[in-house]
Amino acid sequence: MPDITWELFEKQVEACRLCSLCERVHHKVPGQGDPHAPLMLIGEGPGQDEDEQGLAFVGAAGQLLTRMLSAISLPRERVYICNIVKCRPPGNRVPTPEEAEACRIHLRMQTWLVRPKVIVLLGATAAKNLLNPEIWITRERGIWTERKGVWMLPTFHPSALLRDETKKPAAWEDMKSLRKKLMELGLYTDIYGQE
Length: 195
Ligand code: URA
Description:
Blueprint: H1 6-15, E1 32-33, E2 39-43, H2 48-53, H3 60-71, E3 80-83, H4 97-114, E4 118-122, H5 124-130, H6 137-140, E5 145-147, E6 150-155, H7 158-163, H8 168-184, H9 188-192
Parallel strand pairs: 2-3, 2-4, 4-6
Antiparallel strand pairs: 1-3, 5-6
Bound molecules: uracil (URA).
């Protein structure tokens, strides 16, 4: 994809009519953050707050995500955050496989532009679409997979942690594992500026 630029990406998302989710949204939510971050986090799809503001992970789940990142000393603005689908599914339902597939072109462009070394998959939808359609997140979270030189970590979605506090210790283990991986890859200093 040699001629892809961020400007083109933004225009393409804005003009997209590849599925019907765009018909009811207030704003599209392409994603935001450091355009060359070594770490990318991918969620499911925008919720109400995200739809209103046009920004990913700004509601309650997003605030928890910010705290989780800062617990391992990662400033949120130094990572890149986006979703499997860029338009809010009605009533926050899970995007259908067809919607996720239609939106894949945008995610591919984004990944190509950011070129992350590490990707965190937030929740079952991201993990199923990008890692393994059969994944059982409760059992398989925390397990690293390398694909074409990119390390991928499935973990619980922050919304799941808000619904069920008993998942938090496992999510904390995953955050520590993320920090360790970034350090091993020599990326922690890239993000944080110092060890
Ligand atoms: N949940 C998601 O998966 N993404 C957001 O941007 C917000 C909530």
